[in-house]
Design brief:
Elements (H helix, E strand, L loop, with lengths): L8 E5 L7 H11 L3 E5 L2 H4 L3 H9 L11 H15 L3 E6 L5 H4 L9 H25 L2 E11 L13 H23 L2 E7 L5 H4 L4 H11 L7 H12 L10 E4 L10 H5 L4
Parallel strand pairs: 1-2, 1-3, 3-4, 4-5, 5-6
The structure holds nicotinamide-adenine-dinucleotide.
Length: 269
């Protein structure tokens, strides 16, 4: 299908390098006819990779630390100026835990870092929508998608305080989804993605082993970043106008599989 996002204006956060899920979403959104602004934390700009993506997509870059209301406010104001109207879709693809980065075990969390994890990885979604709400920046029927992980529902020992961040993120999806749906028919959903080899993903201890575990359990195998991008595009499109306040698993069937024959074979005596 072509031109699914023709005429739509968007904001895409979180493209750090070509392995980022947001990078693939940007490429797919461009291919489907959307115009959008790219954003990331000022510190991520220094790596310079995002400029290549911006050139390929004909996009402008507006830096914003997603924890700063002022910077987010500037992001939504500038994006509407650059794109020439209200915003039809927003991708929240942001996650970071200082506890994970510093290998601090879950039972000994540093609470300042914990607060930072929640602010960057979850509260930032609330802040984005709150800024958009105040500026009346989202068009009627617009779509907001945040990326999540199944550790919001189940215990994954290595996922540390990011588990709480994802649980909070998904709760914000429901709560703000209600209010924004009532206000302006804006849809808010999270996509709960398979383990994916990206900078954030690979930062999790034991990632490769877990990647293989999930791949062995899922009937379709792990979902790639590219297929996640395709799913996000459908969520931004008019084909999903009535889907809101959902956590949507995009995981090759992992979340509803008890065990696979391949996984059992590894334990056969
Ligand atoms: N990789 C996986 O296995 C996986 C699985 C499920 C969900 N996710 C989620 O997908 C999303 C994207 O992650 P990714 O895997 O593409 O990794 P990534 O490292 O490419 O993306 C994370 C992004 O968050 C940005 N970021 C961090 N702090 C920020 C701040 N203060 N303000 C603005 N941006 C900030 C980073 O610069 C980076 O671009 C995250 O929410 C992640 O939790 C990833």
């Amino acid at each position: 299908m072509n031109d699914l996002l023709k005429g739509k204006r968007g904001i895409i956060s979180g493209a750090l390098d070509s392995s980022s899920i947001a990078w693939k979403v940007a490429e797919r959104a461009h291919a489907q006819g959307a115009k959008f602004v790219l954003t990331n934390a000022p510190i991520a700009m220094r790596m310079g990779e995002i400029k290549k993506l911006a050139e390929a997509c004909g996009s402008e870059i507006v830096p914003a630390d997603a924890t700063s209301m002022d910077e987010l406010s500037n992001l939504f104001t500038k994006s509407q100026e650059v794109l020439g109207g209200k915003i039809d879709f927003v991708l929240h693809s942001i996650g970071m835990s200082p506890n994970v980065r510093k290998n601090i075990p879950y039972s000994e969390l540093n609470y300042d870092f914990y607060a930072k994890s929640l602010d960057v990885s979850a509260m930032s979604l609330h802040k984005m929508m709150s800024v958009a709400w105040k500026q009346d920046a989202l068009s009627a029927g617009g779509s907001v998608v945040a990326l999540s992980y199944i550790a919001a529902q189940r215990a994954y020992p290595f996922y540390n305080d990011m588990a709480e961040a994802k649980a909070m993120l998904e709760s914000i999806v429901r709560s703000f989804g209600y209010h924004y749906g009532k206000k302006n028919k804006v849809r808010v959903n999270s996509v709960s993605q398979s383990p994916t080899r990206t900078t954030a993903g690979s930062g999790i201890k034991g990632f490769d082993d877990f990647f293989n575990f999930a791949d062995t359990l899922s009937p379709l195998g792990n979902a790639s970043a590219e297929s996640c991008a395709d799913y996000c595009i459908t969520m931004f499109s008019d084909l999903t106008r009535m889907v809101t306040m959902q956590n949507l698993y995009h995981d090759g069937g992992y979340s509803t599989t008890g065990v696979s024959m391949e996984a059992m074979a590894k334990f056969s005596a």
